[in-house]
Amino acid sequence: MLQAKIWNPRRELETSEPAIVLVHQWSMMGGKASLMHGIALELNKRGFYAVTFDMRGVGGSSGQKTINGCKEVRDVEAICDWAHTRLGRDLVLLGSSGGAPIAGSAIDLRPFIRAFVGVGYVCGSLASIIFHPHFAAVIATSKPRLF
Q: In CATH terms, is domain 4-146 a member of 3.40.50.1820?
């Protein structure tokens, strides 16, 4: 079970803009949903729905953290399905730090995921060892990406 929260905007935009799913930093280094609350609040001020959640093994979410984040991609999928059903909107994935490659891996797993934003996308030798399974999906997608 995953712990998640939908942040309803103070004022809704006139159009049905996508909701933003915020994927927190790498769990093994203390990443958790509460670190994304500031971004969620700013998105709300601008009229966007935001979704925060704790990946497996973090906060109120059950399961075991993984080193390379491959199982956490399933968490992103599950939250996207849940948010899409609840909100009836397309989604944009926004991943922070080690959450960015995990979010990027999910970009083409659902047709209602429209785009990907990687904030502080990890790179370097250690990141390439840990997160290499995720890079191919982000490179191969034809959907919009912002790093």
A: yes
Question: Residue 56 corresponds to which tokens in the numbers above?
Answer: 């497996």
What pTM, to 2 d.p., does this model score? 0.95
Q: Which residues of 96-116 are buried (b: 16+ CB within 10 A; e: fewer)?
A: bbbbbbbbbbbbeebeebbbb
Domain ranges of the chain: 4-146
- Count of Cβ atoms closer than 10 Å to residue 37 Cβ: 16
Residue 114 phi/psi, 5° resolution?
A: -90, -30
For residue range 84-129, what is the model confidence (pLDDT) as tens digits?
Answer: 999 999 999 999 999 999 999 999 999 999 999 999 988 888 888 8
